[in-house]
């Protein structure tokens, strides 16, 4: 087993929403599967090339369940999860639960939601326009759009959504801060709320996904109470936070570093779908450059010329994979004309993001509305004054003040 290099302490400090730390490029060239010491003090294998990340994402010998079970190594810079969460399960348990909700997130089903998502976005943009600048884009659009949509899908009363946002953000705190206490506190609040909501919907079912899950049977067995509760907060948390952060970070990237591309999208809205996909590849969402969810090898695995031994922790660097020049020409450039864009920002394999079609649609609708109504949108404060929420799994802006029209 190779020893970690002292310089390879993970997470690397040079990463931001703009992209991964420059040393990933060195590792892709020199040591694409490398042993690193993590912030939690545990050694892990860091995988940086696209071909290896994609291959291992679909390898059943890499176990999420073993990474979440009792006695699992605590890899610093990663999010606390519980063993019963769908993102913590291996097949067949994972497949059983996933198929219960997969039908709600197919491309066809999501497209039927487009008019409703457009209405939510239009109402939020109307309010922005009526208020006038400056406006905090995080609170005016980036958070409420996906939060409202996922709340309606699951049947969460609108008045409760902001509490959900607060608890989900606490839950997304990485586990090396105060022993995971903040994350566990958020998890407890989410669980307590869903227990009550499940009880209400069991007594009075409504036309929403949570009610469908309550009634769901798999080979004649009703979902357990724990599975229902876990499903509820997992879908709500995953259904808004990543989209909200991706939207805010994408707008920031366009306004600050790629103004010419913002202007081009405003002039040619037909480019927006391709532009969203390129922003998903180019903008680095994950603060640790990985999904934030380590895996444990359940058997010896040969990859990239090294042997990952059974029991070893493995980190798959999605941000590095998305900048791999073997797959993406001129990978560090935001290219709206990129024809081949097989990015893996939504993951790959059994744990690929269920909500990728919904998230992509929300991003397209939100960007189209902003570009159409506010083509001269700009930051209302200097970039260095923008506040970032530290310690989360994602690069998260606390606020994004923007304005438009003639300068005062």
UniProtKB/TrEMBL annotation:
Coiled-coil ranges from the UniProt annotation: none
One GO molecular-function entry: metal ion binding
Keyword Isomerase applies: no
Top-level lineage group: Bacteria
Keywords for the protein's UniProt record, in alphabetical order: Heme, Iron, Metal-binding, Monooxygenase, Oxidoreductase
KW Oxidoreductase (keyword) present: yes
Matches recorded under InterPro entries: Cyt_P450, Cyt_P450_B, Cyt_P450_CS, Cyt_P450_sf
Family: Belongs to the cytochrome P450 family.
Protein name (Swiss-Prot/TrEMBL): Cytochrome P450
